[in-house]
């Protein structure tokens, strides 16, 4: 597996934005952050709360005086910016850049500029390619964390990150439980004339069986449905 890219924040202005960038990184498996001359120094007390638990990214962040020093050990450098006049470099989307990083040998770095002004021409000159997000030309305002999360997300597509789930997925119910569910339906439907006419009864039962076995019910779902059917079969007592 190619090494994950380094996120380089060039002259970031607010500690809060550094923290949010760290949070965006860790969400998608990126852990190495480098800071170039942060305006308010480092460490910054505002970064921790904004990171929402991504403390190890902040704790291991390295600080450099210049962008050149920050990327000195990187073979592939990408600058996130709009296309600049006088700079002739390949222009990639975040998806294309992530694919490049995933298939190349050597360390890669992605540069992000200050919140207000973005990267300077001298910073972009260090990069092999420009990364630009297709965006609404009438409103092209992305904050630092948003820009980082776009790049990090595209990188994550090349990793084996686990899809989060709200609860552990249960295995499908055994056939015995499905047969019990089907029989329960049939017992309630029989006296209602559902399987009439008799000539169509077998085909109707097959169709019902197909409907009830198709969803891959788990044990809890089958038990719930049986409870529903039992409730339908009861006579409600008047208060």
From TrEMBL:
<comment type="function">
    <text>Catalyzes the formation of 2'O-methylated cytidine (Cm32) or 2'O-methylated uridine (Um32) at position 32 in tRNA.</text>
</comment>
<keyword id="KW-0949">S-adenosyl-L-methionine</keyword>
<dbReference type="Pfam" id="PF00588">
    <property type="entry name" value="SpoU_methylase"/>
</dbReference>
<keyword id="KW-0808">Transferase</keyword>
<protein>
    <recommendedName>
        <fullName>tRNA (cytidine/uridine-2'-O-)-methyltransferase TrmJ</fullName>
        <ecNumber>2.1.1.200</ecNumber>
    </recommendedName>
</protein>
<keyword id="KW-0963">Cytoplasm</keyword>
<feature type="domain" description="tRNA/rRNA methyltransferase SpoU type">
    <location>
        <begin position="6"/>
        <end position="153"/>
    </location>
</feature>
<dbReference type="GO" id="GO:0005829">
    <property type="term" value="C:cytosol"/>
</dbReference>
<dbReference type="InterPro" id="IPR004384">
    <property type="entry name" value="RNA_MeTrfase_TrmJ/LasT"/>
</dbReference>
<keyword id="KW-0489">Methyltransferase</keyword>
<dbReference type="InterPro" id="IPR029026">
    <property type="entry name" value="tRNA_m1G_MTases_N"/>
</dbReference>
<comment type="subunit">
    <text>Homodimer.</text>
</comment>
<dbReference type="InterPro" id="IPR001537">
    <property type="entry name" value="SpoU_MeTrfase"/>
</dbReference>
<dbReference type="GO" id="GO:0003723">
    <property type="term" value="F:RNA binding"/>
</dbReference>
<dbReference type="GO" id="GO:0160206">
    <property type="term" value="F:tRNA (cytidine(32)/uridine(32)-2'-O)-methyltransferase activity"/>
</dbReference>
<comment type="similarity">
    <text>Belongs to the class IV-like SAM-binding methyltransferase superfamily. RNA methyltransferase TrmH family.</text>
</comment>
<dbReference type="GO" id="GO:0002128">
    <property type="term" value="P:tRNA nucleoside ribose methylation"/>
</dbReference>
<keyword id="KW-0819">tRNA processing</keyword>
<dbReference type="InterPro" id="IPR029028">
    <property type="entry name" value="Alpha/beta_knot_MTases"/>
</dbReference>
């Amino acid at each position: 597996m190619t090494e994950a890219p380094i996120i380089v924040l060039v002259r970031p202005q607010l500690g809060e934005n550094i923290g949010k960038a760290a949070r965006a990184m860790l969400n998608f498996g990126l852990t190495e952050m480098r800071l170039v001359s942060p305006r308010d120094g480092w460490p910054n007390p505002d970064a921790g709360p904004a990171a929402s638990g991504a403390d190890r990214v902040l704790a291991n962040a390295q600080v450099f005086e210049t962008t050149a020093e920050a990327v000195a050990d990187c073979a592939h450098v990408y600058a996130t910016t709009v296309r600049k006049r006088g700079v002739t470099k390949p222009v990639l989307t975040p998806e294309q850049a992530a694919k490049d990083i995933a298939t190349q040998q050597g360390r890669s770095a992605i540069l992000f500029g200050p919140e207000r002004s973005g990267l300077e021409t001298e910073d972009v000159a260090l990069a092999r390619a420009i990364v630009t997000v297709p965006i609404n030309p009438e409103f092209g305002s992305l904050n630092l964390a948003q820009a980082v999360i776009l790049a990090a997300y595209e990188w994550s597509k090349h990793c084996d990150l686990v899809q989060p789930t709200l609860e552990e997925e249960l295995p499908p119910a055994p056939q015995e439980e499905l047969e019990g569910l089907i029989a329960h339906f049939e017992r309630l439907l029989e006296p209602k004339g559902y399987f009439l006419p008799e000539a169509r009864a077998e085909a109707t039962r097959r169709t019902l069986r197909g409907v009830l076995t198709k969803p891959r019910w788990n044990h809890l779902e089958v038990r719930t449905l049986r409870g529903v059917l039992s409730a339908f079969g009861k006579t409600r007592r008047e208060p």
